[in-house]
UniProtKB/TrEMBL annotation:
Keywords: ATP-binding, Cytoplasm, DNA damage, DNA excision, DNA repair, DNA-binding, Excision nuclease, Metal-binding, Nucleotide-binding, Repeat, Zinc, Zinc-finger. It holds the Pfam family UvrA_inter. This is UvrABC system protein A. Residues 1-20 are annotated as: Disordered. SUPFAM superfamilies: P-loop containing nucleoside triphosphate hydrolases (SSF52540). Its main location: cytoplasm. It is found in: Cytoplasm. GO terms for biological process: nucleotide-excision repair. Residues 257-592, 596-933 form the ABC transporter domain. It comes from the Bacteria. Belongs to the ABC transporter superfamily. UvrA family. GO terms for cellular component: cytoplasm; excinuclease repair complex.
Length: 936
């Protein structure tokens, strides 16, 4: 047995059910040789200040060991394809279950991946539609069904009385290169002697009268199989069945029944109707990730390069008569508008109704045309065909963008898959529904007993997954929402819902701040879900700062006392009540001994405002919003209410567009005014500060420029003739050329993940040996990059050029970061605070409008206090700060709140309340106001 598996001395063997997870001597990253016990089948929360070592314990020690042991249990064949996993630096671990990590990473960057495919709901929907979907003919609206001998007999006996005389017929065969006489000869050889002329109901004997059949009217002839009378006897049924089988066989799947002196009833064993042949539904037919199921035009993406609807109709609140269609507004093309008004008068179309409220049918007429009105799409096709003329090319480019695919209407799948419906809806329409609407749809399905039996298991899986997604607070997401557009918190909650759907037991779940992006209202639902995960027999380990989550835990581990080198110790382990009595930072904040105080007075602001009018993107209901300048503004509301759409997609993007620095699409709105009051705009979101491993806090904040200059000015550098470039690991000169300044070499492995090995030449130090001999106060350039920000501040205490840049990192609570820590290894919250530090170090002067997207992500109460100091510093210097936030400590310190809601998705997108925190608490409809009351 390996050291990790042995039973430690003085430990009694316990049953696996109640044996805790034991960790002894953990030293991963900054952990200081700590010993921890985690009770099995309980919910344990690991808390502590940012950078104290919570993730090092939960993910890099416990989860990493659980995963490594699982891989070791696989066959040697499977192991060779898995990445080589290093053992965590720990003396002894026992009782670890198979581990699953649910982290804050956006699940997918794949442009085909959606909420439906990620959760497997769409896969089950494909199976459901293939099994019980009804194919509806687009021509007649009737259901397409295959006929059989049984269905034809049932139809005859149901609709006609006993004694009714009829013929059983099949169409004259058609074979290539055969004329009519050849076909008749073959029929005679098969024993068929009569042909019926259908319209005259005249029987022709082909053994004697073949010359009377003309090639021209062969569609009017049928070959006679039998003449019969309806009698309710078994013999009669048997004879009809035999004749029908012959007719279907000889007619290649088609036959007909002609009632004497009555109608001809066509039947087909093929899947066809109204002259159209349909494909029988299969699961592949509904997949946009499969060449068989994907729409040929857009290849399953739902969008094609063409004309952007948002540019053609910039303001959907306008009516057609008032000029909603921008392309027709000039004198040159106004005739198209006149044609449209004529056609609308003829058919009664509502041209005085805002575009947003028009029916699907009328919008189709607008885009595709009718009568003399050509339609928007054909109009632009004509403009494009004349692109050799410069003015036509310029006009076309003004409206170019991506639009819904005209063939599949943006549903991404082949046209005939959209003919298959359940309860009147095809799979594309169901995928456009929000989670809560889809849940109601599948709960209320009206099915026959046979369909219920066939679909029972599939429906159970769909309903279960939708229920979990609804319960984790994602009811506002649509099933066709692209996975790459989800926030970190949303992705994590989808992973959580997936884990619940798989119903594993006896596992260890490790979660990384699952409450990110959740309004306090939705926290209870999330906590209940984690408890249900625990109750079915799993151990749940959560890294979290949220007070509600900490309160709900069975066991709490507090790591600290501070960050980086000053952390990594076990501060506390025990229950919530014991934590309140403890002297740890977390305990003091939770018990109220320490608190983030409400400001004595709210800022008056500069008196100027930026006004956004007519915002209608996604679920926004034509909002007009005022943003008072010179204040700290919080935009709040439940998850999915439209905060990011308003602030990120519309206001920020719209301002950038007006400043001429934005290329992407912007949220629909009428106007943004008041921009002359600001000089610049900055967005601080949770995107990485650099995708390259060469980017780090020192290079990003430009502190590294000052450090390189110091080394260049040393006596040794001057003797050797070194320039600042010699101390950069990004350019040739001083860097190690074997690893090109990376410190690691990536070995590409076939069939395996690439392996990163420390560079043998420089030992991971990034520089040539002679460069590392240059020292400043006894430290070389590599030693400096290994320092934490706090250590560097002490080391460079006299160098203002460097300390000014680094002090702001310390102020926002990032003193524990190493100067040379690779950017991709920073969390979203850390990356955001590094950006904030860069802006704080800029000299005060011009009026800047700052945007922050949930900056408290990953922050402890103590760090939030520091962050608020930074925000207040920006606002006190005359700048405006707009924050999208759920954290009540930040919201209560704002000067102005804009609360959006009241709910998420379609039930959101309205302004619920605006004003100071005190004013918001007076609004009954505001969920935020209700929770604010408790902290004010």
């Amino acid at each position: 047995m390996s050291q990790a598996e042995t039973i430690a001395p003085n430990e009694k063997p316990q049953s696996s059910e109640d044996r805790p997870i034991i960790v002894r001597g953990a030293r991963v990253h900054n952990l200081k040789n700590i010993d921890v016990e985690i009770p099995r089948n309980r919910m344990t929360v690991v808390t502590g200040v940012s950078g104290s070592g919570k993730s090092s314990l939960a993910f890099d020690t416990i989860y990493a060991e659980g995963q490594r042991r699982y891989v070791e249990s696989l066959s040697s064949y499977a192991r060779q394809f898995l990445e080589r996993m290093d053992k965590p630096d720990v003396d002894f671990m026992q009782g670890i279950s198979p581990a699953m990590a649910i982290q804050q990473k956006t699940t997918s960057t794949n442009p085909r991946s959606t909420v439906g495919t990620t959760t497997e709901i769409y896969d089950y929907m494909r199976l459901l539609y293939a099994r019980i979907g009804h194919t509806i003919s687009p021509k007649s609206g009737r259901e397409v069904q295959k006929d059989s001998t049984k269905t034809v007999i049932d139809s005859l006996f149901e609709h006609y009385e006993e004694g009714t005389k009829f013929y059983i017929l099949f169409p004259l065969p058609r074979h290539e290169n055969n004329d009519l006489s050849d076909e008749l000869q073959v029929l005679k050889e098969k024993g068929f002697t009569r042909v019926l002329q259908v319209d005259q109901e005249q029987m022709i004997d082909i053994t004697t009268e073949e010359s009377d059949l003309s090639e021209i009217s062969r569609d009017n002839y049928r070959v006679l199989v039998d003449r019969l009378v309806i009698k309710k006897t078994d013999d009669n049924r048997g004879r009809i069945a035999g004749s029908l089988e012959t007719a279907f066989r000889e007619g290649q799947g088609r036959c007909s029944v002609k009632i004497r002196n009555g109608d001809e009833l066509p039947f087909s064993e093929r899947f066809e109707m109204d002259g159209m042949e349909f494909n029988e539904p299969t699961p592949q037919m509904f997949s946009f990730n499969n060449p068989f199921g994907a729409c040929d035009t857009c290849e399953g993406f739902g969008r094609v390069a063409g004309i952007d609807e948002n540019l053609v109709i910039p303001d959907p609140e306008l009516t057609i008569r008032d000029g909603a269609i921008a392309a027709y507004s000039g004198q040159k093309y106004s005739r198209h508008l006149r044609d449209l008004i004529k056609v609308s008068a003829r058919y009664g179309y509502p041209i005085d109704t805002p575009y947003r409220q028009l029916s699907k049918e009328f919008k189709k007429v607008l885009w595709e045309g009718k009568d003399e009105y050509v339609g928007i799409r054909p109009f632009f096709d004509d403009i494009k065909s004349q692109s050799y003329k410069v003015h036509k090319r310029v006009f076309y480019s003004r409206y170019r963008g991506y639009s819904r695919c005209p063939d599949c209407e943006g549903y991404r799948i082949r046209k005939d898959a959209l003919y298959v419906k359940i309860n009147g809806r095809h799979i594309g329409e169901v995928a456009e529904m929000t989670i809560d609407a889809a849940r109601a749809f599948f709960e209320d399905l009206e099915l026959t007993d046979f369909e219920k039996e066939v679909a029972e298991q599939v429906l159970y899986e769909i309903r279960k997954r939708l229920k979990y997604l609804d319960e984790v607070g994602l009811s506002y997401l649509t099933l066709n929402r692209l996975a790459k557009t989800l926030s970190g918190g949303e992705s994590q909650r989808i992973s959580l819902a997936n884990s619940l759907g798989s119903s594993l037991i006896g596992s260890l779940y490790v979660l990384d701040e699952p409450t990110i992006g959740l309004h306090p209202r939705d926290n209870d639902r999330l906590i209940n879900i984690l408890k249900s995960l625990r109750d079915i027999g799993n151990t749940v380990l959560v890294v979290e700062h949220d007070p509600e989550m900490i309160k709900a835990a069975d066991n709490i581990i507090d790591i600290g006392p501070f960050a980086g080198v000053h952390g990594g110790e076990l501060n506390f382990t025990g229950s919530y009540d014991e934590l309140l009595d403890s002297q740890t930072l977390t305990g003091k904040y939770l018990s109220g001994k320490k608190r983030i105080s409400v400001p004595d007075k709210r800022r008056k602001g500069s008196g100027n405002t930026i006004i956004l009018e007519g915002a209608t993107e996604h679920n926004l209901k034509s909002l007009d919003v005022e943003f008072p300048l010179g204040k700290l503004i919080c935009v709040t509301g439940v998850s999915g209410s439209g905060k990011s759409t308003l602030v990120h997609d519309t206001l920020y993007a719209g301002i950038q567009k007006q400043l001429g620095t934005y290329k992407d699409s912007i949220g629909r709105h009428r106007s943004i005014s008041g921009l002359h009051h600001i000089d610049s705009v900055e967005m601080v979101d949770q995107s990485p500060i650099g995708r390259s491993s060469r980017s780090n806090p020192a290079t990003y904040t430009k502190a590294f420029d000052g450090i390189r200059d110091l080394f260049t000015n040393t006596r040794q550098s001057k003797i050797m003739g070194y320039e600042p470039g010699h101390f950069s690991f990004n350019v040739p000169g001083g860097r190690c050329e074997t690893c090109q300044g990376e410190g690691i070499q990536t070995i590409e492995m076939q069939f395996m993940a690439d392996i990163e090995l420390t560079c043998e030449e420089c030992g991971g130090k990034r520089y040539r040996k002679e460069i590392l001999q240059v020292k400043y106060r006894g430290k070389n350039i590599h030693d400096v990059l290994e320092m934490s920000v706090s250590e560097a501040l002490e080391f460079f205490v006299d160098e203002e050029r460097i300390t000014n840049k680094l002090q702001t990192l310390e102020d926002v609570g990032l003193g524990y970061l190493k100067l040379g820590q690779s950017a991709p290894t920073l969390s979203g919250g850390e990356a955001q605070r590094v950006k904030l530090a860069k802006f704080l170090s800029k000299p005060a002067g011009d009026h800047t409008l700052y945007f922050f997207d949930e900056p408290t992500t990953g922050l402890h109460f103590e760090d939030i206090a520091k962050l608020l100091d930074s925000f207040n510093e920006l606002a006190d210097n005359g700048h405006t700060v707009i924050i999208i936030e759920h954290n009540l400590d930040v919201i209560k310190c704002a000067d102005h709140i804009i609360d959006i809601g009241p709910e998420g998705g379609f039930a959101g997108g309205q302004i619920v309340a605006t004003g100071t925190p005190e004013e918001i608490t007076q609004v009954k409809e505001s969920h935020t106001g209700r929770y604010l009351k408790e902290v004010l």
